[in-house]
């Protein structure tokens, strides 16, 4: 039997997926968790063969839960099952140590098959995830492509000559928060100061 820990904050998902998996001759759902903290506690306590992990949950999300599990139990096999396919979720999840990554739009049979393959030591990735990874490998990203939406917004305001305080006032955020974003974007762009950041923005035509 392949013992599975099912982690999801939606009861209907747990009921539906749990019922299907329990009907499989070789799969047994030994426990359920509604958040990342419970997932870590039950995972370390029960040591299931597979952990089906949702990403967006209260108290602790799936990425942090996966990090903590892998840190304390390197042999853990985590399958991410989520609705999210954006880079801000995919790459952190895989970097955290997730073995496989599936979407909730996957058919029940595909999830069961992924459990079996992951149990056997294989990695199962949603085709779109594989495509994203291959694209990222083929085309190295430019520094500004690593900026978050907020950091890009602040960079563009910097090109208008606005001070940190003026940016804070315009975006309705704390001055300290602006300073943190500025520091982060300078680091990501690999420049020394605001002037170089502005030059970078014009050079790469981020602003007219």
Automatic annotation (TrEMBL):
<dbReference type="InterPro" id="IPR001789">
    <property type="entry name" value="Sig_transdc_resp-reg_receiver"/>
</dbReference>
<keyword id="KW-0597">Phosphoprotein</keyword>
<feature type="modified residue" description="4-aspartylphosphate">
    <location>
        <position position="54"/>
    </location>
</feature>
<dbReference type="GO" id="GO:0006355">
    <property type="term" value="P:regulation of DNA-templated transcription"/>
</dbReference>
<dbReference type="GO" id="GO:0000160">
    <property type="term" value="P:phosphorelay signal transduction system"/>
</dbReference>
<dbReference type="InterPro" id="IPR016032">
    <property type="entry name" value="Sig_transdc_resp-reg_C-effctor"/>
</dbReference>
<keyword id="KW-0238">DNA-binding</keyword>
<dbReference type="GO" id="GO:0005737">
    <property type="term" value="C:cytoplasm"/>
</dbReference>
<feature type="domain" description="HTH luxR-type">
    <location>
        <begin position="140"/>
        <end position="205"/>
    </location>
</feature>
<keyword id="KW-0804">Transcription</keyword>
<dbReference type="InterPro" id="IPR039420">
    <property type="entry name" value="WalR-like"/>
</dbReference>
<dbReference type="InterPro" id="IPR058245">
    <property type="entry name" value="NreC/VraR/RcsB-like_REC"/>
</dbReference>
<dbReference type="InterPro" id="IPR011006">
    <property type="entry name" value="CheY-like_superfamily"/>
</dbReference>
<dbReference type="Pfam" id="PF00196">
    <property type="entry name" value="GerE"/>
</dbReference>
<keyword id="KW-0805">Transcription regulation</keyword>
<protein>
    <submittedName>
        <fullName>Two-component response regulator LiaR</fullName>
    </submittedName>
</protein>
<feature type="domain" description="Response regulatory">
    <location>
        <begin position="3"/>
        <end position="119"/>
    </location>
</feature>
<dbReference type="InterPro" id="IPR000792">
    <property type="entry name" value="Tscrpt_reg_LuxR_C"/>
</dbReference>
<dbReference type="GO" id="GO:0003677">
    <property type="term" value="F:DNA binding"/>
</dbReference>
<dbReference type="Pfam" id="PF00072">
    <property type="entry name" value="Response_reg"/>
</dbReference>
């Amino acid at each position: 039997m392949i013992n599975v820990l099912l982690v999801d904050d939606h009861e209907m998902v747990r009921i539906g997926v749990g019922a299907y998996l329990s009907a499989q001759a070789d799969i047994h759902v030994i426990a359920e968790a509604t958040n990342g903290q419970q997932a870590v506690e039950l995972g370390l306590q029960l040591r299931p063969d597979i952990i089906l992990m949702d990403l967006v949950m209260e108290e602790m999300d799936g990425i942090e839960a996966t990090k903590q599990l892998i840190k304390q139990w390197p042999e853990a096999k985590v399958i991410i099952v989520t609705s999210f396919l954006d880079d801000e979720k995919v790459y952190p999840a895989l970097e955290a140590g997730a073995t496989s990554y599936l979407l909730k739009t996957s058919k029940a049979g595909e999830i069961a098959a992924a459990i079996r393959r992951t149990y056997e030591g294989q990695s199962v990735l949603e085709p779109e995830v594989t495509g994203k990874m291959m694209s990222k490998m083929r085309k190295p990203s430019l520094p500004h492509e690593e900026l978050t939406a907020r950091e890009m917004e602040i960079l563009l305001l910097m090109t208008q000559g606005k001070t940190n305080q003026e940016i804070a006032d315009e975006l309705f955020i704390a001055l300290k928060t602006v300073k943190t974003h500025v520091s982060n974007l300078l680091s990501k762009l690999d420049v020394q100061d605001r002037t170089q950041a502005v030059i970078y923005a014009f050079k790469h035509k981020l602003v007219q």
